[in-house]
Specification:
By secondary structure, this protein is mainly alpha-helical. The protein has 9 helices and no strands. It has 2 domains: 53 residues, Arc Repressor Mutant, subunit A (Orthogonal Bundle); 151 residues, Tetracycline Repressor, domain 2.
């Protein structure tokens, strides 16, 4: 291995260490209370070193969201190629959505806030490109399954991208809305059960009558 390759691997390893430390700090302190100094301390690095890898706290937090989006896209793409019916694939999407919520609800919630907020304006071009790339991959996989349903006559003949938006938007909406109810009313976490109900309604609504 050459010097350049070693340096590149070291850079990637350090970046992963920073992200791992950030996830711990954000989980304990929350985004608003966490500081770059605390994250640097958790990663055993100087604050100045953090800024060599991330433009600001928003960009570092966004990188966590990109990781979970990448994981989500990978899981969704695997469903596309499974030898099961279209309806079963949509149901598998539901299961993937719930699994990702269980993995890290806070980061997932941040992802959905990120996609509709002003934080996007504070990101570097590189991070924005990553966000676009993995969003497109996840969305494209859902579109592929919806199109398969339309082509086989199972689903109504509407634009597949719009129908995929309904699925993705329902996921984001349920997670954000039900979580906000839990915070306001100290209720139990009903995200999973609400997602199951939402997908029953979505599947029935997409089917040809």
């Amino acid at each position: 291995m050459g010097i350049h390759e070693r340096k590149q691997r070291e850079k990637e390893r350090r970046r992963d260490d920073i992200i791992a430390a950030a996830r711990k700090v954000f989980s304990v302190k929350g985004f608003n209370s966490a500081t770059m100094e605390e994250i640097a301390s958790a990663a055993e690095l100087s604050p100045g070193t953090l800024y060599l890898y991330f433009k600001n706290k928003e960009e570092l937090h966004t990188s966590l969201s990109i990781n979970i989006l990448k994981h989500l896209g990978t899981e969704i793409k695997q469903v596309v190629h499974q030898d099961i019916s279209v309806e079963e694939k949509i149901e598998r999407f539901r299961d993937v959505f719930i699994d990702v919520y269980d993995y890290d609800a806070n980061i997932l919630i941040n992802l959905f806030h990120l996609q509709s907020g002003e934080t996007l304006q504070n990101l570097s071009d590189e991070v924005m490109e990553q966000l676009k790339k993995y969003s497109s991959q996840a969305h494209g996989a859902i579109i592929a399954v919806v199109k398969e349903g339309i082509d086989t006559g199972l689903f109504i003949d509407e634009h597949p991208a719009a129908m995929a938006d309904v699925i993705w938007g329902s996921y984001a909406g349920v997670v954000l809305w039900v979580d906000s109810k839990r915070l306001l009313n100290d209720q139990k976490d009903f995200v999973r059960s609400t997602l199951r109900t939402a997908f029953k309604i979505i599947i029935q609504g997409m089917k040809v009558k």
